[in-house]
Structures are given as C-alpha cells and as structure tokens.
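Troubleshooting entry. The earlier prediction with 2-acetamido-2-deoxy-beta-D-glucopyranose gave an output that would not parse, so I re-checked the input for stray whitespace and re-submitted. Clean input:
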Amino acid sequence: MRLPTVILAATLAVSLTYSSPAPALSNPQATLNYDDPVIQRLRTDIKNALSQRDCHGCIAGLFAFKALSTLNRKLALLTLNEICPALLKTEKDVCLGLTETQGPVILDSLEASNLAGGDAKALCYQLTGVCGPLPITSGTMEFPKSRPPDAVAPPASGNQIDVLHLSDWHYDPLYVPGSEAVCKKPTCCRDYKTDGNSKSTTPIRAASSWGDYACDTPMKLAKSLLGHVQEVAQPALAILTGDIPPHDIWLADEATVVPIEKESYDTMASILNTTVYPTVGNHEAGPVNLADDWEKWLPSEAIESVRDYGAYNTSPRKGFRIISLNTNFCYRNNYYLYENWTTLYDPFHQLKWLVNQLQAAEDAKERVWIIGHVGPSQIDCIQNWSALYYQVVQRYSPHVIAEQFFGHTHRDDFALYYNSDQKTVKSAIATAWIGPSVTPFRNLNPGYRIYKVDTGSWNIFDSETYVADLSKAAIWDATGATPDWHFEYSARKAYGAHVPLADHEPLSASWWHNVTEAFEKNDDAFQQYWTYRGKSAKRIPECVKGSACPANIVCDLRAGKSSDMCSSRGFVTN
Ligand SMILES: *[C@@H]1O[C@H](CO)[C@@H](O)[C@H](O)[C@H]1NC(C)=O
Ligand SMILES: *[C@@H]1O[C@H](CO)[C@@H](O)[C@H](O)[C@H]1NC(C)=O
Ligand SMILES: *[C@@H]1O[C@H](CO)[C@@H](O)[C@H](O)[C@H]1NC(C)=O
Ligand SMILES: *[C@@H]1O[C@H](CO)[C@@H](O)[C@H](O)[C@H]1NC(C)=O
C-alpha cells in the first residue's frame, strides 16, 4: 500500500486557469516537443490565465494541463515548476522539490481522471472552492445489523483517570537558534542558503532556542512540554493524533522522515510514564516504519494491522477499545485518492472495516474511542468520505462510540455530530475533540490537553489545556529561564459558567451544543472560546462581533461532516 504524503504542490494543478480550449488537443500526436506551436500555445495560455481564479477557468485549466501532460509529460512538469513560485508565493528550490516529488502523482491522477464526466468540477470544488459545492452522493453505508432499539450509553462509574492528548508534534531536527524566523519558505528557523529576504547579516527576527511562531518544534521545546506533563498529571494513557515530522514538504522523503519519527517516539517513551496510542498523520512515513516505532506501545495484532492499513483496533482496558484510523484516505491533498475517486469513495474499505469493528464492540457491549489525524469535520477531508463516516457515527453513537479525537488544524477545538438534520440539543449525539498542537506553527502557542475520563462510560468530564506563551521566548533565552508552561483553562469551568452542569454529568455533545448556543447569544463567551482556540497566542486574527466570522465558526462547530462547514474553503496546508 502506498501511504500518501501531504501535497502542497497539487494545489498548482487546479489553480491554473485556461481561457479557451486549444485546437488540435482532441487528437494528440504522441509526444510533441518543446518548440511545437501546440505546446507553446498551451504553456502560454496556462501562464496567462493564472490571474483568473474562477470555476470555468479552473476547469479549463485542468483540461489544458491534462492535454499537455498527454502530449509531453516532462514539459507538463516543467510548466508546473515554472508557475509554482508565483502561485504559491514561495521560492524556486521549494517548487523544484514539490514538482519532483508530487508532480508525477498529480499528473497520474489527472490522466486517470474523467474530467468531462464531472471530475473537473469536483476537483476544483474540493481543492480550491472556486466551483460551487458538489451534491453529496456518497450513498448509504451498509451495516451488518440495525441499531438496537434500546441502545443506551452505560452510566459513569465515578472512577476517573487522566488521559493525555498530544497532537501535531512536528519536530524539526534542522531547527537552528539564532537563524532567520521570517522567511519565504513553508517553515523557517533553519540555516537555508536562501530564505527569500534580500541579503542581510542580521535576521529580521532571530529564532529563539525554544521555538518561533513561523517554525516547527525544536526538540528542546518538545522535551520541556513532556516534562511539564509529568509535573501536572499522571496520565493512565495517552493518545497522539498524528504528524511527527516538520512542514518541509518539498524536502521530505522516507529517508529524512524515518529518523525523525524514531527520535520523537523514543523521546516520548523515555519521558512519559504511560502507553501512547498513536495515529497516522498526513506527514508520516510509511506504515512499516511506523509499526516498528509503535511496537513499544501496541500489542502484536495491532502492529500487524498498522503494517497493512496504517490503522488498528486495540483494547487498553476490559470493555474499552481504541480504534485508530488512517485518515489519509480522506485527506484532499492526498493526490493518490483522485486516481479512482468517483468509484473508490471508501478507499481500501477502511470505513467498512470500521463498521465491522464497531459492530463487534456493540455485540460485546464495549465502549469505543475513535482516534485519527484529519478530522472528518474538517474542510480538507473529502466530502464523500466524510458523509459516509457521519453515517457510521450516527449508527453507533452514543451507545458504542464514547468519544472521537483528531488533530491536524493545530487549534484547540471540537466538532459536533447529530442524529438528524435539525441540529438541536436533543439531536446532538457525539463530539470530536480536536487536540491543540505541540508545534507553535503558525502563530499559535504550543500546548497539550489532559482529559478527566470516567472508566465506566469512557466519557470526558473535563478537558484541561496547558500552554506556554511563546511571545516571551526571547526573554527566556536572555534570562536563562525555561518556558512558562501553565494551565490555560478547564472547559468545564470556562463554559460551565454559561451552561451549568451537575457534577455527575459529562461534557456531552448536548452540553457542547448548548455551549455553541451560548456563543451565539453572548459575544464575551464566543471571544473566550476564540482565544482558547488559538491557545491564547497574541497573534490570533480577530473574529469580530457583527461580522460573518462568529456565525461561520459556530456553524463549523456543528459540522461533523466537511460538507456542512460554513467558513471559506481556502487552501489548508497543515
Ligand atoms: C461519491 O460517491 C458516489 C458513490 O456512492 C459516487 O457515485 C460519486 O461520484 C462520488 N462523488 C465524488 C465527488 O467522488
Ligand atoms: C510510573 O507509573 C506508575 C503507575 O502507572 C507509578 O507507580 C510510578 O510511580 C510512575 N513512575 C514515575 C517515575 O512517575
Ligand atoms: C485505481 O484503480 C486501478 C485499476 O483498478 C488500480 O490499479 C489502482 O491501484 C487504483 N488506485 C488507487 C489509489 O487505489
Ligand atoms: C441545554 O439547554 C436546555 C435549554 O436551556 C436545557 O433544558 C438542557 O438541560 C441543557 N442541556 C445540557 C446538557 O446542558
């Protein structure tokens, strides 16, 4: 199985615009060369059309690009590389790396696609949002048994444990303190030969030894965070929702990623005195290497399953299961998926596998946590897959699925699921907890969560977030201090002030729904959430009362599936 990597470059292929179809393309003559007028015409038109960014242009651009690729693949790659710096506003070496690693995948997918049959419009919508939304035609998930009429979640036992949630670690082994933090590459704070700035001996902003808002995690920061976890909690278990390597996607390959994964997992194992349940992120190496790294925590059946699918199902305690999904099968920047995407809407039958696991858990009256990296609620989870996943959550919640955990956005967040199109307190059935990132990339403080979990219901009674204020990093360096890790907030206390709940009640989906209603009525409550969502970083953009922003964000919180989201469908490159 090919495990995909993040593909920023693929945004290139769909951002191209092309004013009118070129003649002679319907009858391509094998491989035309560079000087051929047809090739010249295509290349010129693709470049000229770059300024237009509408649906028609995007679709025409895909046709032109596919035609160019069929005529001369090498020239298609060359063209990708040429237009990349202006399009992605990045440097030539980044573009070259992206074209070399991801370009062939993009062209394979384009060649296999049925552009006239609807793939063109679908791609333009899914990737850039310049075309209108697609009808969600994912059909109906099939379930082995119908939902038991008397299905209820078990009561809480009163016994609580601490669970650590780590996400988006993004360790950068090439991080250099003192280097330039303001650069024109996807991630900064490295000794680059060129960083996009005009020649200068002193950095515009020098990277601190603890990290920077435009950079990934130095090991020193990661170790300091884990040390703080050990001071404030004794987690009975930990979940890690993906993305160990840095954002140097134009350089990353198996050879660079494997040692980064190994060093990171070994560091976690040496500092954390608990079992970590990991999941595959969009930046990870192949499943074979991950399986080797995860052997210290997972039983052998789970390791076998990781090798085969990048997913596993394991039971840390009697009556409790963790199912770890490989959400690269829904990730929209995974260009392998588009090869067959209108027939392969459940790639490798992972959702079918998930249903079988959940059915077994229902039969055995077990409680399940689902963990994954890209949240199905998130804009970059392909809509068909997301809509099918939603049906699975509806079928097995709340009596089997206790909670779900994802990462990927780097923000401290959540999303809700409902058993009806009417999104009300009565129909709210499940919560996806989206964990804050370890990395400060971009403009966020580093952080982690501790959950208070009942070991009878496996529901969450509190979610506590800890952060450090990275804006003080230069002071820590100057004074020899260490990061100011501190308790940021308790969800129960912060939002319980607006939606009171009794001691015996968990932070249920209905409670969270009420919290979103409080956000609608009370801007102070919303602004409090907005600050926590960005981990109290001083660089969070504003979400101003009276603008479209707060309503769109509340809509997103209630969007367990990506097609229900309201905020803009811009590029997401986490
Ligand atoms: C969604 O899945 C259905 C099959 O259920 C398929 O017919 C349709 O083309 C898919 N849509 C997209 C955009 O892939
Ligand atoms: C490690 O955890 C065990 C129980 O989970 C505890 O008894 C032991 O004290 C912990 N060790 C340290 C160094 O925290
Ligand atoms: C797409 O389908 C072809 C032909 O069935 C198959 O060889 C290929 O592996 C499929 N691609 C993916 C990503 O599953
Ligand atoms: C949600 O709010 C409604 C209406 O105020 C209230 O009846 C209900 O008990 C609340 N539920 C939770 C879980 O907060």
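This one parsed fine. The chain has two domains: 7-128, 160-564.
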